[in-house]
Amino acid sequence: MTDSPLSGFVVVDLSTGIPGGYCTKLLADAGADVIKVEAPEGDPLRRWSASGARIGPHEDGALFSFLAGGKHSVVADPVLDEDLRWVGDLLAGADAFVWSPDSPLAEHPTLTPAAVHAAHPHLIVAAITPFGLDGPWSGRPATEFTLQAWSGGIVGLGRGAPDRAPVYVGGRVGDYLSGAYASAAILASRMQVLAGGAGDLIDLSMLESHVMGLTYYPVTYSDMLGRPWRDARRLTVPGVARVKDGLVDVGCGTAQQWFDLCAMIGHEEWIDENAPVSITEQASEKADELYAWMAEHTGDEVRELATAFRIPNAPVASPDAIESLEHFVARKTFVTHPAGFRQPGHPYRITGVELRPPSPAPRLGEHTYRHRHAPRTRRQPGTAQDRLPLSGIRVVDLTTFWAGPSATHLMALLGAEVIHVESARRPDGTRMIAGVPVTEDHWWERQPIFAALNTGKKDITLDLGTERGRELLLRLIATADVVAENYTPRVLDHLGLDYAALQRIRPDIVMCRMPGFGLDGPWRDNPAFAYVIEAAAGISWLTGYPDRNPYEPYSVGDPNAGLHALNAVLLALEHRRRTGEGALVEAAMVDAALNIAAEQIVEYSAYGAVLQRADNRGPSASPQNLYRSNEIDEFGRDDSWVAIAVETDEQWQALRNALGDPDWAADPDLGTESGRRPREDFVDRHLGAWCRDRTGDEIVAALWPAGVPVAKVSQPHRQAELEQLAAREFFEVLDHPVNEPARFTTMPFRMSRRTPPIHAAPAPLLGQHNHELLTELGLSDTDIEELLAAGVIGSAPPD
């Protein structure tokens, strides 16, 4: 018997564009009744095609159809008081309200988030804006491109060639991340409402979403280690490599994987466990030989060998070939939309839960009459005392590295009791990746990535290679609501800890499994780090220079997977509340990545267009590029940049005015996007020359107040210096028993019924809560001492 966990949950959607569209798509797919309220001109996304395909007067664009499937559309005119009163009636009978600016309806004073929250205190109100509802940058213009620049995401992981401008991550991934964060926040807030609380005002900042999704805790890293994560652009080797018949991505995320790669290509003499440089630097030194070896083999040959050596790998998928990849064929990953194009299936699978199949998108105003005449029940706000959304939920966290811990970290920040399970013999991988010498005292506690991903959690060490360790884990799971893990499927299967085994211990358990490629299919057991997931999903395809191999984003695959896993777990918990049944959540990393890269396959299957990477240009703005300023950066290089993206003809006129209306910009053809697009080289030369004579601050000061989307390309370890993030207290300082105080990101949304601090405690020490948790399970002090002596538990890695 299947169940739609959000059946009866009514969402009024007053957003435009991708972020709100994707947020409400996730809710609608889980059974919510989404009523999209549009101004008479409709959502601009109805007329959008990334390839410029012609959309007929009675048609909608394919991307809009993908995002709006299964929703209702009603039209309200903001100049008509009757329509505004009717929208108020809709809100009075709804459960949630999703809002973004930049439409005449959304900008009406009675429909702003604050006004709606005050008038309808029962409602969960989610506002999605570039910078948040307050702070010095609130209301400033921005695009996906300029937000990537401000966040540090463009240079954060060294993406691009040293002799060229850095490159952004193609495909508007930040918009999708913002939508997925908004959906998770709504689902979490709903748990408060179901517990008897009033509605919440969720204030989501897209800039903060970009920080979380496109950078790797650079402020914490800099605070703890006194140096930036990277100080230059370096090609990841081998990374994306050309083979006889195309492109493959092969990556080494650990020293062991680098050693295995050396052995794989027949160069065991390269292996040096005591090398004075990192594996990245070692690989770079051997780049020519590595690429020569790759070029002599086919993609299948390289990938078959890499898989045998347990080295992460994947084909670099393009929109015209991705559907034919064997793994996606076997898993029936792509499905047909009623409009005829192909799209990825859901980003997660949940046993016993019915997720809506692809459904038609509504025509503009198609459901206006129905909803104008439908009876409405005015909802009343709850009166229960405020509590954290996941208060009372216990999570056993078997995850490691980034993707899994990012999901459970959000659960902890939202109030769950999260118990991180490690082994003293083999701690979480993020305790060992930052290069802290093992000669330092407590080196495993000094790793910034672990510190950033695990605040607010408890920690127990259990050696699951022992019968006693497995027994204690099962006893711990019997007390839990959720179990999360992100190993390759064979690991837990080998330990006998699959979903069926957990059900025998606790029938209503929610088990969240986060394999890279899923629980079945030919790539099932392939190791998967973010970069190969990005390659397989097509995100890498759009990232980089058109005359070179694509670049790995090397960031978004992990946190995006964690975010979608959180959405799935919240749906599974609601399913359990309704039915009393547990659920198996399969939140494959690649399925989540395919959904935020969906536009490529949608565009290709609808219009036959293969979207291409284009440096820093993009389909939604012209001009859009990075321009060098006249400053020397903090590393002594002539490598300081600003991002400018003109999305409308009005913004072009604002740019002309801010530049002093120069002669080169006076050509009337440049006044339209269609006229600027073929002359982008001409515009870039002149705009680049103007920027080259100025500092980044001078460029921003000239253009931003005029209404032009612009940003300095920030170094990621300088994020905390951005006045907007400081004003919103996005970073909190935490002390630690071993480390000096450091700054940590919070969440990319505020909740009006929650007051800081967001972090309840710093990341736990290895095995810090062994005694507390084992005592709770009924063990005596003598029992615990015996476990310690036997090596089943511990508080330090072996010497």
TrEMBL record:
Residues 356-386 are annotated as: Disordered. Keywords: Transferase. InterPro entries: CoA-transferase_III_domain, CoA-Trfase_fam_III, CoA-Trfase_III_dom3_sf, CoA-Trfase_III_dom_1_sf. Residues 369-379 have a biased composition (Basic residues). GO terms for molecular function: CoA-transferase activity. Pfam families: CoA_transf_3. This is CoA-transferase. It comes from Mycolicibacterium aromaticivorans JS19b1 = JCM 16368.
